[in-house]
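Need a sequence for this fold. Nothing fancy.
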């Protein structure tokens, strides 16, 4: 029986959601001929935090570990998708109730998955509180992923600072709309950008 894979990556496109302060993705395709055959080459311009992406400690001034130095042991392995739909400010107690206590990689399914591909961005998307971030550190979590543009509340950075300072990888802008809560294997491979503060990633779940 073939294995089941679920792609939780938001496709890159010029009309995708980005922060208002970030440059929108642009793509320019040129056509030419070589040895009698038509070929195409596309030039992309985008930020390292466009679409599904990984943050490294170098993203904020909390460490010098860049995205190309993130350990594969954090990016690949057992993961749990927790159902946190209906919540905005996710607390430590919310994580406990959702079963987030005994897995090294957590992916948080919230109401954000309803708009992450299409918009519009709500005034207050689902996000983590500082207490939730502290709880993840206490539980020894290696990676946390959220189906929003950021793990923080708008105009806040405390959760980013707390998690990145502790060496927890942040995976943002994933689409969990078609994923049932439960246990999976996460395969998350960001582009290996030398000295990068972050990088777009392809993130896939394999049913366990």
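Here you go.
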């Amino acid at each position: 029986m073939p294995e089941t894979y679920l792609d939780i990556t938001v496709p890159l496109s010029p009309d995708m959601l980005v922060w208002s302060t970030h440059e929108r993705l642009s793509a320019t395709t040129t056509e030419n001929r070589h040895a009698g055959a038509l070929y195409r080459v596309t030039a992309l311009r985008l930020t390292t935090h466009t679409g599904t992406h990984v943050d490294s400690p170098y993203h904020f001034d909390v460490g010098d570990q860049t995205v190309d130095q993130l350990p594969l042991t954090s990016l690949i392995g057992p993961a749990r998708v927790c159902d946190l739909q209906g919540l905005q400010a996710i607390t430590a107690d919310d994580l406990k109730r959702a079963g987030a206590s005994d897995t090294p990689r957590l992916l948080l399914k919230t109401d954000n998955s309803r708009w992450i591909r299409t918009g519009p961005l709500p005034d207050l998307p689902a996000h983590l509180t500082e207490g939730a971030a502290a709880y993840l550190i206490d539980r020894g979590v290696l990676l946390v992923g959220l189906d929003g543009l950021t793990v923080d509340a708008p105009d806040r950075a405390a959760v980013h600072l707390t998690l990145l300072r502790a060496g927890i990888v942040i995976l943002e802008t994933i689409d969990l709309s078609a994923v049932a809560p439960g246990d999976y294997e996460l395969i998350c491979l960001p582009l290996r950008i030398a000295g990068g503060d972050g990088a777009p990633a392809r993130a896939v779940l394999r049913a366990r």
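For context: The chain has one domain: 5-13+47-207.
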